[in-house]
Amino acid sequence: MIMDQYNETGLNIALCDKVSPTVLAAKLTNLGYENISPGTIAKAGEFSKRGGLIDIWLERYKIPVRIDLIGEQVENIYMFNIFTQGIIKRLKEVYIIACGITPKIAPKWTKQKKFPLQSGNSVRLFLSEIEPGDLVVHIDYGVGRFIGISNLKLDDQQFSSASNPRESRKVGFTCDASSLVPLKPQKLGRLASLQDEEIYDGLAQTDEKTGRKSNLTNQHLIVEYAKGDKLFVPVDQIERITKYIGVGGRKVPLSYLGTGAWEKTRQKVTESVTEYAKELLELYAKRQLSTRVGVGTDTPWQKQLEEAFEYEETADQLKAAMEIKADLESNHPMDRVLVGDVGFGKTEVAIRATFKVAQAGRQAAILVPTTVLAEQHLHLFRERLQGFPVRIEKLSRFEEKEKQVDVVSGLKDGSIDVVIGTHRLLSDDVEFKNLGLLIIDEEHRFGVKHKEKLKTIKPVVDVLSISATPIPRTLNLALTTLRDMSVLSEAPAGRKPIETSVGEFDEEKVKLAIEKEIFRGGPARQELRRQAMAGGQVYYVFNSVQKIASKAAEIQKLVPSARVTFAHGQMERKVTSNKVQVTSLEKVMDLFYEKKYDVLICTTIIGSGLDMPNVNTIIIENAQAFGLSELYQLRGRVGRSDRAAYAHLFYPKNYVPEGESLERLAAISESTELGSGFKIAKHDLEIRGAGNLLGTAQSGNIALIGFELYVQLLSQAIERLKNKKLS
């Protein structure tokens, strides 16, 4: 279409629009942008024209946008890295608001009324304040995020809340003929296909009744109920159907159509859920109402750190980092969940948040589940923050006694800025002078009591919880507005899916898999491999401490050319007086990292966040004994570079997988695409059932109505109680 959406405050440009580069440059100048053509833009408010390329740095963006014109047609629009010129995120359209529009219009208008946005039914409250003929000037937050609202006419119509930035991304409106709300088209989330959701497999719910899928046609999904009654659900009303997830092992009766039994059940569960919601709100209310002085905006040091990152950030990483920074700069303590698939860059986001807090004179604590992960984080944090005046230390019960005393003292007097530690951080002798940020890595590995104890060290502390396979409770708390969530769903450039095989244990397959990895590039490179200059490495997961040494000897005999070692969390330590020497575990891991060994026979100790890009084959013996999330975490230890990666999952000879073990192995073998962590979490929920997620008191309710409806009722109860408090 012809680009005609232009006025004195901005213009909208979309793919396939018609506009000449010269005309576009003139309009950008009229909008207040500085033309530095043919130079390179360096800050917000500038644009540059080079042939058919228009680079523009919008004030509200942290990164610039490039508009690629062929002739007079817009062919590409994308955000790009100002240093590498690489594409960060492709766009379908961009709205270019006038540069410095806020100060320009401010003198022209008198603010007649300030309406404080509140959580809950804010749109309805907001509309009730509007008088006929009023002019509403929107800010870029809350309701004002919906740029393009040109007319509002209110009948007795209930609207969804749009004041919360998280909710506004998915909010929609349903209006009758007498109510009109014209909105600029917003990109909403894609409705997953039937195949993706698998809602037609087994039990499903329609209008909150439980039935069983009977058939799927091009026009209808047929759901069967008790006594053979059937309901034909049109495909265009597929949102009425959700997959039933109950409590593992319980038989689920089908509902009867045309009776009031289901309504009574729902009412009973609603009452119980409301009581549970009150408990949740009381738990989080203190943090929601707390205030504290936020940290300042980014310093030159912060920008220097971020620009020194050797990889190109994904758009999700940049977005998550900005969301976390906004939380830290606000006057309310952060309680955010950072969810990202294995190897998607969560640690880098955490490092940036840590450095921002440290520059404000506050301490940061990173809680990790294992000493091995603590050691790796220590090296990584120190490497990234090298050259900046930030003292980073590690604390675990396996450190030398004198070292532990020194670290505890440094935390108390404030001489230590960042501490990375295991459960040792939760000890009674650990005190902080000015704790500002708590990062909980691998959140699902810690109990609620552990996390709540550390939060109580200081009443107002920012909390960032990190998870690769989010536990559904955390996910649903985030979706019900009790916690904020940032999601890393985009794989770093160059990553490849991990080729996964599942089968009966076969020594020959093990031998071939190891040799294929350690002789990457061919046997001719064996000498180079010996010099640690070529070839890959292998994790061999064997989860038996008692037999791990003999398994290492077995693999060494099977592949004589490989350099084999083993490691587990109970390896002996040599103790002299109050000093603990370097542990065998740490020494082995360091040597393996330095490529002195080719194969590491290990327990699940490697499953927590280890990042060794040269290890691109993992073999898991007795895979049927592991949980689905555990298998996914283990597999995620490989494939962390641009090399092809392989995962071989073996079950014992003559063993026939069945039941839950069969479902787990099938799920892990099917979920090989990049970013399948959420799918894994969903599979795990379905296999185990949802009864243990919210405690035994709620498991009966989940069994009665299913997990999806339970979460919906819980969300509604929380919102209802919050609105009641506001009124």
What does this protein structure show overall?
There is one protein chain. This protein is of the alpha/beta class. It folds into four domains: 6-103, Penicillin-binding protein 1b fold (2-Layer Sandwich); 194-243, Thrombin, subunit H; 300-488, P-loop containing nucleotide triphosphate hydrolases (Rossmann fold, 3-Layer(aba) Sandwich), CATH 3.40.50.300; 498-673, P-loop containing nucleotide triphosphate hydrolases (Rossmann fold, 3-Layer(aba) Sandwich). It is 33% helix and 19% strand. β28, α18 (628-635) and β29 form a beta-alpha-beta unit. This is TRCF. It holds the Pfam family DEAD.
Average predicted confidence as pLDDT = 74
Shape: globular
Span between N and C termini?
48 Å
Order of strands, widest sheet: 17-18-16-19-20-15-21
Backbone CA Rg: 28 Å
What kind of oligomer do you see? single chain
Structural class per helix/strand content? Answer: alpha/beta
Q: What number of structural domains do the residues give?
A: 4
Given the structure, what is the number of helices?
Answer: 22
Largest sheet: 7 strands, parallel
**Any idea what the CATH superfamily of the largest domain is called?**
P-loop containing nucleotide triphosphate hydrolases
- The count of β-strands is 29
CATH fold type of the largest domain: Rossmann fold
Under the CATH scheme, the architecture of the largest domain is: 3-Layer(aba) Sandwich
